[in-house]
Design a protein that fits this description.
GO terms for molecular function: peptidyl-prolyl cis-trans isomerase activity. The protein is an alpha+beta fold. It has a domain at about 1-130 and about 190-200: Chitinase A, domain 3 (Roll). The chain contains 4 helices and 7 strands. Strands 1, 2, 3, 4, 5, 6 and 7 form a 7-stranded antiparallel β-sheet that branches. It is globular and about 50 Å long.
């Protein structure tokens, strides 16, 4: 409770994604993507960046949707059963703002400088869930895509229908390994966290 009281509130990126800086490079900018006060280059829309990441499900003690120790769904660059296209492929190169990139990453990486690490909240509509009312279920949702959100499969056939209809497998990053694909398929319609390190500009 003391940690909750003393922790700074999450910041909000231009597109609405909430984030928390874990390692902040002095002289970097804010989420708007301008050059930092120290003249250090920071990420802006259209930049091609090299990232390391961990996609996490929320931990039990996550009081703000970003803190706590979450379980890894899939990762690259952290040595945690990494999802590598080929051995030694320890980073993910992408262009911020690309339609194929998960929107929360395009939004939340803005303003980061090389060497910085940030935790970004991935809401389902900013992640791997297809847009549309039929997929917008759950508490507060406007559709019938899944009023009951659970961590385990109650009715396998019902879950598979939702997955086939609403799971966007074209959004990147996307796991290569089958077991990690299944883990993501079970959680794509829940809030997730991505802990991302900006390695370099490409």
């Amino acid at each position: 409770e003391e940690e909750m009281a003393n922790a700074p509130p999450p910041k909000v990126a231009p597109g609405g994604s909430r984030y928390k800086d874990i390692v902040e490079v002095v002289g970097g900018g804010s989420s708007e993507g301008e050059e930092g006060s120290g003249g250090i280059r920071v990420a802006k829309a259209g930049d091609t960046v090299e990232l390391r990441y961990k996609v996490l499900k929320l931990g039990k003690r996550s009081y703000d949707g970003l803190s706590g120790e979450g379980t890894v769904v899939f990762s690259r660059g952290y040595g945690l059963e990494d999802d590598e296209k080929k051995p030694g492929d320890t980073s993910f190169i992408t262009t911020l703002g690309s339609p194929s990139l998960v929107a929360a990453i395009s939004d939340g990486v803005l303003g980061m400088a090389p060497g910085s690490i940030r935790r970004i909240s991935i809401l389902p509509q900013m992640g791997w869930r297809l847009p549309g009312k039929q997929c917008d279920g759950g508490p507060g949702g406007s559709g019938a895509g899944g009023e009951l959100k659970t961590d385990y499969v109650v009715v396998p056939t019902a879950t598979m229908v939702n997955e086939e209809t609403c799971f966007d497998k074209t959004k990147l990053p996307f796991p290569q390994r089958y077991d990690q694909q299944r883990r993501l398929a079970q959680r794509f319609d829940q809030s997730l966290i991505i802990e991302v390190e900006l390695v370099a500009f490409s």
